[in-house]
Amino acid sequence: MYLSHGIKSNITNNDSINMTQIKFLTLLPLLIFNNINLFASDTRALLAQNYHISQGFYISQSDTEAIQPIDHFSSPSDIDEEVLESHSRKRTPKYHYGYINREHSYSESAKHIAGIYGATLVLYPLTQPDVVRKKGSFKVYKKNFGKLVFDRDEPFWNWFVHPISGSQLYLYYRANGYNRVDSLGMSFISSALFEFTVEIYTEPASIQDLYQTPVLGSVLGVGIESLSMYLLNTGNMLGRVLGHAINPTTLLWFYEGKVRIIPEYNLKNSGRLTLVVNY
């Protein structure tokens, strides 16, 4: 940016010259130059709050990548092409975790329900092999079909295991772009299908399980969702590990809330910083 100031005065013998005006015109360039320096100093101090300033090159505090700075700022034509290339690069991608809410077609929702249903068919005998082997049979399945009872399971199962499994079911649907209300509804459908068509191989459908798994599970899921997002976005390794541990769907391929942020700097474009956000 260039600032030019020109003053032209035509003085004749008959002109009366005000000495105050002469002093003002004489000091005006100095005042302008001094204000520009003050503005530059204030701007530099403000930038220093968020950036390390090293030999004329701004390096983000969050960027741990070693960058060799140039000695001073110069015009692009004054900098060697190899130097420009070495300083025009992408930083290490950063990630931000969250959730998106989008519309779903009936066919897409049916695929999700079918996928969860298929997973329960496989996981149920794997997680409870003794129960399936001792109590399960197609004769029992036929007897329990359509029956609904209050079960006598231990509190550990009704108030801990079922809400935990329901919370992960809720988080599965959240990871696939369903809002909180729809995730609750989809969790209820998946839970009801399991109760009435899978678990009856060993025992009748449970009234408690019909609401404890989806309802209490969704309530717990909201809490896990908020806590895991906080931990994942803290920026430290321990927070990310704990966040993924309590919300493992954030590690899977179908999770839609992971945003990659890539800062780009390019000295050919006057040190412009470009943010590239990929969903």
Provide a short characterization of the protein structure:
With about 280 residues, the protein is an alpha+beta fold. It is built from 9 helices and 8 strands.
Polypeptide structure, described:
The protein has 279 residues and is an alpha+beta fold. The chain is built from nine helices and eight strands. It has a domain at 106-228. The protein starts with 18 loop residues before the first helix and ends with a strand. Helix 3 packs across helix 4 (129-135) and helix 3 crosses helix 7.
Radius of gyration over C-alpha positions, nearest whole angstrom: 33 Å
Query: How far apart are the termini?
Result: 37 Å
Q: Find the structural class using helix and strand composition.
A: alpha+beta
How many helices in DSSP terms?
9
**Anisotropy-based shape:** elongated
What is the H/E order?
HEEHEEHHHEHHEHHEE
- How confident is the prediction overall: mean pLDDT? 75
Strand content: 5-15%
What percent of the residues sit in helical stretches (DSSP H or I)?
40-55%
Oligomer: single chain
Low confidence ranges: 1-17, 35-79, 270-279
Number of strands: 8
Q: What characterizes the major β-sheet?
A: 4 strands, antiparallel
Summary keywords:
disordered C terminus, 8 strands, 12% strand, 9 helices, four-stranded antiparallel β-sheet, disordered N terminus, 279 residues, elongated, two-stranded antiparallel sheet, alpha+beta
Question: What is the secondary structure topology, with strand pairs?
Answer:
Layout: H1 19-48, E1 51-54, E2 57-60, H2 81-87, E3 89-90, E4 94-97, H3 106-127, H4 129-135, H5 138-144, E5 148-149, H6 155-175, H7 180-197, E6 205-206, H8 207-232, H9 237-246, E7 258-266, E8 272-278
Parallel strand pairs: 5-6
Antiparallel strand pairs: 1-2, 3-7, 4-7, 7-8
Helix pairs in contact: 3-4, 3-7, 6-7, 6-8, 7-8, 8-9
